User: Fold this.
Amino acid sequence: MATQRIDVTKTGDVSVVRFRDRKILDEGAIQELGAELFALVELDNRKTILQDFEGVEVLSSAALGKLITFDRKVKTAQGRLKMCGVSPGILEVFQVTKLNKVFDIRADAAEALAAF
Assistant:
């Protein structure tokens, strides 16, 4: 199998996803990332997910597309998705693209976990 792009831990009922890559730019890596994220919902039936972006510096537009698709998959499965640890640069991209209105973005993991 290809390199794993995410680490998943459990905190109570919440699956916490941490990204291994600091820069999510490479098309192949983005496809792998998408497959791993989608499998959480489609194969593992996880419905309460926190994406922790701590350490992620850059996302490509293709990576944004995967995040949007993942958000839809979670919502279709009647799940809940929150994000935290988003760097100021990535947050700015979310604001410019209005994705900050789509995604539930919290300052840190403690705040996000409490919001579930």
The mean pLDDT is 95. The radius of gyration is 13 Å.
